[in-house]
Amino acid sequence: MKATFHGHACFVLERDNKRVIIDPFLTGNPAADIGPDKLPRLDGILLSHGHGDHLGDAVALSKQHKATIVATFELAQFCTDKGATVHAMHIGGGHDFPFGRVKLVPAFHGGRVEGDSTGKYTTNPAGVVVTMGGKTVYHTGDTALTMEMQLLAGRIDLMLVPIGDNYTMGIEDAARAVEFVKPKSVIPMHYNTWDLIKADPQEFKRLVGNRAAVTILSPGESHTLS
Ligand code: NI
Ligand code: MN
Q: Ligand 1 centre from 153 Cα, in Å?
């Protein structure tokens, strides 16, 4: 399985010509290496929560690729009402899709949906656990360090973890999150997109030490899980 970073919290995961994107914030993302029009064909669009820097281009991409958006019930409802194809789930539930299995797990963060002036689509933010081709990836979404992460201990091949501080964990809590989850490898995300979330990924790598292999990706770069 290959994971490609597209800036901020956006990743494309692919194996055997099946492809999903997580948190497709490309339009307006100062860290994105490509626009949404340059993405390869997508089978699924996985959302951690409804903030603009995660929901991003999801609805437009769903229409363009006839790809299913997978999200918590309320956020999925918002996307349906915007004309997207969706599959609604909720925290703690998993489902098998043609591209692989998705499970939503807890995240501590805000639940408002960008573009929803009514507040009626406000939802629980989530972490996204995706299993494709025998490898399991945990995209924590935007979150604080939480005890719930320990429930995933030893079950994760690749952890995608925010280190930018302010809205999410900073490098110290992110390193503790790695201790909790014990993944084989880690890629830091959600930093340096704006000045407010400036962080040093090398310092994060140093704090993680020998607990996991940390790979620092620049937007456009990929990491292959073997
Ligand atoms: Ni957020
Ligand atoms: Mn965010």
A: 24
